[in-house]
Design a protein that fits this description.
The chain has helices spanning 22-38, 44-82, 89-103, 110-123, 130-142, 149-154, 157-165, 172-186, 192-199. The protein is mainly alpha-helical.
Length: 202
């Protein structure tokens, strides 16, 4: 497992925009007014730059999360086409599409996240680890969005990546995004207790 890696494919990126971030922009505008009001020594240009960078970071994290489902769909379909995997490709595709549509409205679909975990369990068994590397990288990027962190823990995805760390033959290219996912998912969520509890079983 993971001892012979084929040429790593570039992680697919599904396009999206920040048009759905109107509420975030509104909050950033309020932050700008607050910066100017409470920090008279900070000129308007500096305040605008500070708030603008904060808005850009929030938007980037949201975009990463929005790309999660279509990007995973690309990886899963290719893995199923090139290997014998035991999951319904079309059903998974439709589930990911529904989750993508709902996520823009704040829906965090635990059922679909559980489906993702099921597919990842199968990717773990493949000799070619490139699919798992891509999927782990996509999820690590999505976990930068705080609103997904608790659902990742509740759906069993966090436990899967924790178990992955316990394997002795894990490639570095798998390990790095896995650690990023674990670190992001646990940040500010109180999931460290869950990590300790799961770790005791290894």
């Amino acid at each position: 497992m993971f001892l012979h890696q084929k040429d790593q494919k570039e992680t697919p990126i599904a396009t999206t925009s920040c048009a759905t971030q109107a509420s975030t922009a509104s909050s950033a505008d309020e932050a700008f007014q607050d910066s100017v009001s409470h920090h008279p020594d900070l000129n308007v240009a500096e305040a605008a730059l500070t708030v603008g960078l904060d808005r850009l970071n929030i938007c980037e994290e949201s975009v990463m999360a929005e790309r999660m489902f279509p990007s995973l769909d690309i990886v899963f379909q290719r893995a199923a086409k090139e290997n014998e995997l035991d999951f319904d490709v079309q059903e998974t595709k439709h589930a990911l599409r529904r989750a993508e549509q709902g996520s823009g409205n704040g829906d965090r679909n635990l059922e679909v996240l559980a489906i993702i975990r099921t597919v990842l369990d199968q990717l773990l068994l493949l000799q070619d680890s490139s699919y798992l590397i891509e999927a782990a990288s996509i999820l690590a990027n999505a976990s930068r969005d705080e609103s997904w962190r608790l659902p990742f823990g509740q759906s069993g995805l966090l436990e899967l990546f924790l178990r992955l760390q316990a394997l002795t033959a894990v490639e570095e290219d798998v390990l790095i995004p896995s650690l990023k996912f674990i670190g992001n998912t646990c940040a500010d969520t109180g999931l460290y207790d869950k990590v300790d509890m799961i770790a005791q079983n290894f």
